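Subgroup meeting minutes
Present: P.N., E.W., G.H.
Scribe: E.W.

1. P.N. recapped why we're keeping a running log of single-chain structure predictions: easier to compare across weeks, and new members can see raw inputs and outputs side by side.
2. G.H. added today's entry (347 aa).
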Amino acid sequence: MIKMANSIRFREIDSLRGLAVLLMVMVHAAATWNTSNTTQTSTLAYIVAGLGGLAAPLFVTIFGWGMYNSSSARKATLTKAGILVILQFIVNLCSPHLYDPYSPGILSLFALLLLAKPVIMKAGASIKNMLIFNGLIVGMFMINSFLIEFQGSSNWDSRIVVKDVLQLINLALFTGTYPVFPWICFCVIGAFLGSFVKEEGKTLPRNNTTLSVILVGISYCIVTLYLAVMNSKVWAHPSEGDYLNFFPANFSFMIAAITGVLILWLIVQELNILLFEQAGKVSLTVYVVHFIPLTYLSNLENERNWTIMEASQAVVLFTTTWLIFAYFCNRYQWLTIEYLIGKLTVR
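Output recorded in log:
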């Protein structure tokens, strides 16, 4: 839930956040119930992977937007960061087949972004600062590509296993599932977009600059896809993409993800799509709680030998259930994590 100082609430932000968390639920379910005959080249796999790949970028971008338009006191910010770290630990315990108990994840990323709020606000305060910041990000990608591969390997275990404090720090900053670099980039972009609200009256400016960025991003994706097809390479993949790679997130993925985020944002804003608003208000609760039944049912497709159609139906049903769950939570908000955080951080 996002509120401005003048109590104006932008409902599409809640809807976007709800869409992001439901896409994360979908991709987690799809990855859990991945039948043996599902191939990376199938149309369904590309659709699910494409939408799922936008879930975290959209989540982090909206987080940055909300951060810019939040007036929380420093003490409240630190309290929220601490709660997010605890929730990350709870998520890890609920999903032992996926994470080490101390693995950094997207919730711990949010905690670190809250601690880095002054830097993020400065970077997103103007177009000049944005260009400088993005220049540094590009420079770090070049260093990783040509000098020191500090982003780590694509091996899943190496991105979640924590053996000591130094490795924990390294995972949180560079080599984990959602490390500060390069994911802070989405947060800064969100903060930058948040600075236009008072001037534009919209959460995302609908102008030639926004449309130009989208066109450049689409063109980049088309060119890289063409090159992938011509060279018989894997265009996009969670960990083995020759062009777009999620773990670790590479430069091409960042371009494609930012483009996708802007497109989804424009669609929701201009068509006034509020279907996911209720889920957005309790997105943290949905994110944390959905791991519990998903872990319990993680072997269901093996036990029942599901076909790809049956697995797809299960994913749709599981995802839709959390949309309904969100409506229930909004009627009984005292049961939500958001309510608890509000009580603990009230000034």
